[in-house]
Design a protein that fits this description.
Number of domains: 1
Mean pLDDT: 87
Number of strands: 6
Strand order of the largest sheet: 1-4
CATH topology: Alpha-Beta Plaits
Order of helices and strands: HEEEEHEEHH
CATH superfamily: 7,8-Dihydro-6-hydroxymethylpterin-pyrophosphokinase HPPK
Distance between the termini: 30 Å
Oligomer: single chain
Helix content: 25-40%
Radius of gyration: 15 Å
Strand content: 5-15%
CATH class: Alpha Beta
CATH architecture: 2-Layer Sandwich
């Protein structure tokens, strides 16, 4: 499904500059199943809110239904973690993603394809954040 989602993103005009291999992870929250996670570097002229709208449309097309319950099992979850423009915040979207620094299922695949990208808040590279997270365990 993740490869199909990447293909759909490309079909809708997003440039897939890099895509990681997938890693399995346990869920955050009450879901009982494991998830496959990956990261992609995407190029687009869209501003973050328009990109989020496009990504949520892809999620809907892949069967995701947002029913108001946080962290429920889902077929596809496409998040904006970082943006080359630095930080973004509005009523719907915050970039960088608030929790990404503490999530190995985000940092592991992201550091594989964009190790030198920097967190605009801490200034740390993804490789450094990933290494720090591994040391905490």
């Amino acid at each position: 499904m993740l490869r199909a989602a990447l293909a759909e993103m490309a079909a809708r005009g997003l440039g897939i500059e890099a895509a990681s291999t997938f890693v399995r992870s346990r869920p955050v929250g009450p879901s009982q199943r494991e998830y496959a996670n990956g990261a992609a570097v995407v190029s687009t002229s869209l501003e973050p809110p328009a990109l989020l709208c496009l990504l949520q449309g892809i999620e809907r097309d892949f069967g995701r239904r947002r029913l108001g319950q946080r962290w429920r099992a889902r077929t596809l979850d496409l998040d904006l973690i970082l943006w080359s423009g630095g930080c973004w915040a509005d009523a719907v979207l915050v970039i960088p993603h608030r929790a990404f620094r503490g999530r190995s299922f985000v940092l592991d695949p992201a550091a594989r394809i964009a190790r030198d990208w920097r967190d605009p808040i801490t200034g740390l590279r993804l490789a450094h954040l990933h290494h720090r997270l591994g040391k905490r365990k």
